[in-house]
Amino acid sequence: MTMRTLTPPDTEVIVTGRPASRRTRQLRKAGEAYAFLSPTLILLFVLMIVPIVMVIGYSFQDNVILNKSPEVVGLDNYVAILTDSGFWKATGNTLFFTLTSVAAHLVLGLSFALLLNSRLIGAVPRAIFRGLYVLPWLFTVAVIAVLWRMLLAPNGIVNFLLNTNIEWLASPQLALGTVTFINIWAGYPFFMVSLLAGLQGIPSDLYEAATVDGASPVQRFWNVTVPQLRPIIVSLLLLDLIWTSQQFALIWLTTGGGPIDVTEMLSTFTYKLAFAKYDFSMASTSAVLVLAMSMIIAVLYVRHQKARD
């Protein structure tokens, strides 16, 4: 079939053939979408996919990076790292640091969110408290580390107020608990802000109906507030587990994993293998194991988000 269309002045446009099929139009739209996404996809491939594949490859070799002729050793690196007492010490410290921090973040964040959402506090005090409670979230990790190192120094303000001379960050008995406290102080505002937004989105009709039914404040909390906040709480817990288990900067800038290995985390353990001992094969193996543990939590988070949607 041939169609002839006249366009002024005396110009002919001849269109021959059948209209484009639906599949062709879909392919054209998909091609346009991927063309717009291509810069981001290329960056992700170069900066994330390629390094991950290289690290996984290094974990099955020996004498990598510094040696021009690496040797394939199979699973020997994994056997060595899993039988290393230092790795398990770092794993135990990471579990204590992570679980304690996440639990405290939830309790403090929810408590302060309930306080700021209460009608018992006026508008001006509420605004002041919000600024004070969010303050730790405004500092970078470096500032937080330097700040607390100064506060907890033997001649710092904390020892002055307590009238003691304790080495908070250098004591084998106190160092792990101290860095955990610092991380709790730095991380609870994220929970507080997220849960406060969730509290403000709960319909007041639910509380009114519970009050009419004779529910006490405690019953209203457990039967109205907690079920309404459950999706947000689960998402926050999973995200915080991933972030806290990979905390490096705070530990490195406060204790460096010491004294001895009291505050050694999986992140600092892997870093020292690579850049202190220059054992990149074992460092890659440790990094792959950390990646596998993080992926388990990430899969749980994605499944929760899909179920929530």
UniProtKB/TrEMBL annotation:
The chain crosses the membrane at residues 33-60, 95-116, 128-148, 168-191, 237-260, 280-302. InterPro entries: ABC_transporter_permease, MetI-like, MetI-like_sf. Residues 91-301 form the ABC transmembrane type-1 domain. The keyword rRNA-binding does not apply. GO terms for biological process: transmembrane transport. The keyword Cytoplasm does not apply. One of its GO terms (cellular component) is plasma membrane. It is found in: Cell membrane. Belongs to the binding-protein-dependent transport system permease family. This is Sugar ABC transporter permease.
